[in-house]
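User: structure tokens for this one?
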Amino acid sequence: MAADADRLAELTNFAKRYTEAWCSRSAASVAAFFSPDGSLKVNESPVAVGPDSITEVAQSFMTAFPDLKVIMDGLELLGSGAVYRWSLIGTNIGPGGTGKRVHINGFERWTIGTDGLITESKGFFEPVEYQRQLQVGV
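Assistant:
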């Protein structure tokens, strides 16, 4: 049990720093939390593999929402990884944006490698609600 408590504390610290990276406006900072061959999949989008592709995914959100704020809502241990729960708040004022404010909740299911970094992240948020908010706001 103490090992689980230590692991949870370590991953919680990791998740807090990951959240800060999303808020930093530095997409490469987000990618630094992934193993060199790590992958990120968001909803039904293609899988982004490696730091350059993961940086592109993070940058797409940072560009669409220049005032992007990510809040960590929780973290649960799950096998060799964790489930990271988050909220994203921002105004879609990037190129071609709608000007609408969004507030969506989602999660990422992480597999953590022996290097202590994310080897696989499968993320999800409700796409219908996201599209609705892009059109009419929160």
